[in-house]
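Thread title: Can someone regenerate the structure for this chain?

I was given the following input by a collaborator and told the matching structure tokens would be attached. They weren't. Posting the sequence so someone can regenerate them.
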Amino acid sequence: MKRLLLAILCLYLAPFASAGGDKSDAPQRVKHQITGLFSTDREADLREAFENIPDIKLVAIDFANAEATLEYVPTKVFGNVKPDEKIRKLDNLLKSASHHTFGVKPLYTMPREKLRRIAIPVAGLDCKACCLAAYEAIYRLDGVETATASFREGRVTALIDPAKTNRATLEAALKKRGVDVKSR
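Best answer:
Regenerated them for you:
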């Protein structure tokens, strides 16, 4: 009787063992922080960029956190790339597909409640290219987790680690890039 039950159990579990044996061939949904996602006006641009990357599907966009949920089969997209090099490869794929206006970086390393939001009023941002220039001036600074730039609102915002950067550093970077920073 025990052998019969064991045989039935093995027959029942066999399909699950073979289907779940190698998860690397199963599509996975993964969140990534997206650089260049400084405005909701960029949604169509981001979607178009991902349409040009084979084997990666854009599932959702979270503008508030500058994140996107992607679906892909890791072995198909990354091949034998080491785990610590996957973000860099994904970053390169997205940069190539978007003419270097989007990229990928790891998700936040610090809890959101420890980050500080800085809003800087600016003038002269009258198109997406101007906003991109203002955004690029600050998002690459050490301590900046995310940033936005809006010509409609006349404002550049950043979520920062206050131990690594501050408002004065952000304003200086904007001024260096030629952005007209308004007094508060």
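The helical segments are 2-20, 43-51, 74-78, 86-97, 128-139, 167-176.
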